[in-house]
Amino acid sequence: MDKSSMQANRRSNEYRSGVEAFIEFALVNARDPYHFCCPCTKCENDKDFSAQVIKTHLFLNGINLDYDIWDEHGEAVVNSESDSDRYSNEIDEDSETDSSGSSIVGGHMEAECDVQSDSDGEEYLSGEYTGFRQFVDDKPLYPGCTTHTRMAVIVKLYNIKTKHSMSESAYSDVLATIAEFLPTGNSIPDTLSEANKVLTALGMDYTKIDACPNDCILYRKNYEEETKCPRCTKSRWKLDSNDKEREGVPAKTLWYFPIIPRFKRMFQSPETSKSLTWHATTRKKDGFLRHPANSISWKFVDEKWPAFGDEPRNLQLALSSDGFNPHSVQSNNYSCWPVILVTYNLPPWLVMKRKHMMPSLLISGPKQPGNDIDVYLEPLIDDLKLLWAGVSGVYDAVKNEIFTLRAILFWIINDFPAYGNLSGSIVKGYHGCPICLDQTEPTRLKTGRKMSHNNNKRFLEKYHPYRKLKAAFNNRTKDKTAPVPLTGEELLSRLEQEVAKLPLGKKDKTPKYKGGEDERRPCWKKKSIFFELDY
Hints:
16 helices, 30% helix, six-stranded mixed beta sheet
């Protein structure tokens, strides 16, 4: 064996010994020996594996020699003066990894982010963030514990509760059982209500708003102290079997989950904050439609409001809503309507992940809100107005700075009946097409008594051969040309002229069409609340 071969073998043995020492150290100090970061050149500490898999990676790929932070691999949290420096690095353009190590509901990344103040002494640690840090840092799981915090354990257990649809009583029993096996003085809460108080520091609080049973109003702002609906005179409180009011028990309730605190929390997580600017820093810009940022709508907003488009941290949102039966039975006697917000700043492989879909409203049943859903959207619309104007004091954990966050509602995702409820457009009957409006031209079936829209040849080109076919369509050869959709100005003008400005609610019905030459069938049921948004 020559000298160079002997040196290579010696280096190989030294490397193997180093890998063995690293694995042994990680197994002793890791929170979870089956999940800690892999420092090989391919994974670059972005993926979690077991010790055996990491050992194989290190032998095959080698170790990342440029990495010098060795206290963020799942071991006990150790404060370091240089921890905050690594979050100021730019995003690796070749990285398209869906890292599961952080969560917007308060994963470990928030707990491990060491926030430092600026040299100018800017006080960006607001009261809510200070409270959040207090719960994360100052509460070990039990006296002397250096590997787990109370917040991390509660969040993990809460994720298990949600994943397996655990009841509140079962979750409380699990908390009590775990507390029995921990040393005396542990900080595990005893009940679900106590755990919820802890989770409010993560921006996971919600507000219960009483509503009129007839969907006329929400008891907020000017109506907060009312006990009867000023429009339909229906009692605010639920009635017992003797029709006596049960004061303090609302007849109908809206659950509102404030969105602004949760958007702030997203930027306090370094991993999530990086993902929120992926569309501007890492997206391939080759002219193909790879991301909503390539769409016409996105480009239109950037051109019309350059100040909004120049800040990549501004959020582009979509709203989705539909009804479902939460009791999982075949009966349709109950309909609950959630309203979900989706953030399109994220990479495509993260946008539709459940942890990034943000519930904002939960409209309770038993009846669906229908056309009166605008009443329940009021709190969300108010927050969207604030986000469009700008919310100051938002901390970015990546750049370690304070900025003003803005957001815009791009799209609404729903099926056709829900589209009618949200937009106010007629989606059935003689004017059931929201594009054709009063030029829909349906045919009423004599036996089925349903509307049939079979005059679709008019959407073909003028000399298309299908226009001459009679038997295959409606036995007509001469069809009109397709109607031209209304412009935004024309739509707004017709809405203001045709829609009666009646208050919402089940008791205030829009007058029905009676026929006649002087009366035209309506094409809309209302002017949607989304018109209150400036954009």
